[in-house]
Structures are given as C-alpha cells and as structure tokens.
Write a structure and sequence with these properties.
single chain, about 350 residues, 2 domains, four-stranded mixed beta sheet
Length: about 350
C-alpha cells in the first residue's frame, strides 16, 4: 500500500486550491465559469437538466483501465466535496506531479461535481420536488437520480466516491475530537455481510485513513453501516459498484468547512492514487480500527454551576433574502453532562 507524502499533498493543495470557491453556499452560478478553465484538460459534457432546468455536467479525464465515478452535492446543502473536486480539477489541469500522472495513466475518472443544482441554489438537502436523491435509488422519481443511474450503468465504474457533508454533532468515539472526516463502506443488505465489494471498498478507505492519520490523527471516524434499502450507496454497492462514502465534517473553528475541504481533498487524492497503484484490494481489517462516529457535540453549550440548567444550541443554516444566514437554535435535551460544546460559555454566580 503506497501512502502519499503529507508534505507533498499539502504543497499540492496550497498551490492548486480553487480560491474562487469558499464558504458553504456553493451554487451552479459559482461553478459555471470554472468549467471553461478545464475544457482543455477534461472532456466536459452535459448529462442533462435538473427539475428546474439547471444544467448538470460531467467531467472526464484519464485513459486507464480502472474506472472511477465521483459525485458531489446530491444534497444541495453539502458542498465541501464540490470545493475539493474543483481543487482536484486544478491539479489535473495544471500540475505535473508524478502521482497525478500515475492516476491518469492507470484510471479513467468521471466527475459530477453538482448533481442537485436546484437544492444547491435553495441550500436544501432535497431537490426542487422535495426528493432526497440519496433515498431515491430504488424508485428513481427524480430526474437527477436517473441521470446518475444512467451514467453509472454506461460508465460501469470499478469504484464510486459518494461525497457528503455530516453535521457538527459527530465526534470520534473515545476522543473529544469532532469527526472531521468519516468514511463508510456501505452494506449491501441488512446483515451487513463482508462481501467482496465491501472488502474492496474498505481497502481503499484504509489507505485514505492512513494518510489522514499522518495529518489529522484522531479526527477520523467511521459512519454507521446500517443498511438503508433506498440509499444510493447501499444500492450501488449491492449492484456491484464499489462505493466509498466520504462525510466531510467539522474541524475546530471551521464553520465554513475550509479545513475539512482540505482534508477531503487529501482523502480523494489518496483514494484515487491507491486505486491506481494497487494490484489487490483485500486489506480490510484496519477498517474496523477506525473509531465509530459518536453523537457527542453541540455547537454551543451554556454551562451553569447547577448542571441541570445547562443549555445547548445548534446552528441552523438557511437562505434569507438571498443571503446565507446561520442562526443558533436552542436544543431540548435534559442531560448535557456527557456532551461537548464546540464552544462552551460558563456562567457563574447570580446566573446559576
């Protein structure tokens, strides 16, 4: 197993980061002009339209036998993976790094950087018809779900990368750290059996985690592998397309998801490099050494000398008058002794 140098990947990211993209609200308008800068390096085609007739594009690069499909923002309000993909596009368009050349020699890559542009515009999880695309893999009611499935069957990838964001509530089990990146090799059925596909998926995750542990040790978690019958990753895995789920989460004081964007970039780059260079995908045991995600965090906790009066708050992001707004909302929970606030304010004396 070849693990990329943390020094090398940090320099690549610093040099190639797409500086025009920042923050959490990333819409089609933000990325539309960026396609032009990559038209010489990538084959760029339109897959189709969203429910509200926004274009959905795919980018293709590489000429190797190993086929990899990557997509982001099937949930419109989960944009960290999209930012990381455009950082990666800059790498393939501009960088002559040998590891990147190896990826393109061994792999053919297809990207869908924004599957749900309507949800992205509204900053919602669902599409314009209130359909959660990540729960529409069986019924395929949404246009966007059918575009992804058609692409999957046409391209026939060996591996898929399904990019998501996870909430700030998750920590790394056994630590007091947030789960900045969490991985999942989705189950294929309710028993969560270790099929050949899951083992191969776990192998790639082991490689990604190995790099991250050199950069953000103990900030990586493992997402629950409970089987969801209508979920995209579970169904793609069931159909024989190895699907790696990357959940980009919170890093201390990183509410704009710019640090987690960087770590997501490292994860994807290592994953692609591992697929490109590995001859076997059977090193799965270390996958189970990655700690579970644990729901231990709130964004803000007010602490009082009488702990029964402690109060928790979570940020709610929404678009108001065409502006991105984060508001703190009070959470109803009686016992906060075992919870951690990303920010904690301690009140003493007359306030207790």
């Amino acid at each position: 197993m070849q693990i990329l140098s943390s020094v090398v990947v940090k320099k690549i990211f610093k040099d190639q980061k797409e500086i025009s993209l920042s923050g959490k609200w990333i819409t089609f308008k933000n990325i539309e002009k960026l396609f032009l800068k990559h038209q010489d390096a990538f084959e760029i085609t339109q897959l189709g339209f969203s429910e509200q007739q926004r274009p959905i594009y795919k980018l293709k690069i590489g000429f190797g036998k190993k086929r990899i499909l990557l997509w982001s923002q099937m949930h419109g309000n989960e944009s960290t993976g999209t930012k990381a993909l455009f950082d990666l596009f800059n790498c393939f368009s501009n960088c002559n790094n040998q590891e990147l050349k190896t990826i393109l020699e061994e792999c053919t890559l297809v990207f869908v950087p924004m599957l749900n542009p309507d949800g992205s515009q509204a900053y919602t999880r669902v599409n314009a018809n209130n359909i959660d695309l990540n729960r529409d893999a069986v019924d395929r009611v949404a246009k966007e779900s059918n575009l992804l499935r058609n692409l999957l069957e046409e391209f026939n990838p060996q591996f898929c990368f399904n990019l998501h964001d996870q909430r700030t509530i998750f920590g790394v089990e056994g630590t007091k750290n947030p789960a900045t990146i969490s991985f999942l090799a989705p189950s294929e059925e309710i028993t969560r059996a270790l099929t050949k596909g899951r083992i191969e998926t776990m192998d790639v995750i082991v490689a990604m985690n190995s790099l991250l542990q050199n950069i953000i040790p103990n900030f990586v978690g493992r997402y629950t592998d409970e089987f969801y019958p209508t979920a995209t990753g579970d169904n793609f895995q069931k159909l024989g397309y190895n699907t790696i789920l990357i959940e980009s989460g919170h890093y201390p004081n990183d509410y704009q998801r710019e640090f987690s964007r960087e770590f997501t970039f490292y994860s994807i780059l290592q994953g692609l490099f591992h697929v490109a260079t590995a001859t076997k995908f059977n090193s799965f045991e270390p996958y189970f050494l990655i700690p579970n995600n644990d729901k231990i965090f709130y964004d803000v906790i007010h602490r009082y000398s009488n702990s029964e009066k402690d109060v928790a708050f979570q940020f709610k992001d929404e678009i108001i008058d065409k502006k991105f707004v984060s508001k703190l909302e009070k959470i109803q929970e009686n016992d906060l002794k075992t919870k951690i606030g990303h920010n904690e304010i301690v009140f003493e004396g007359k306030f207790d």
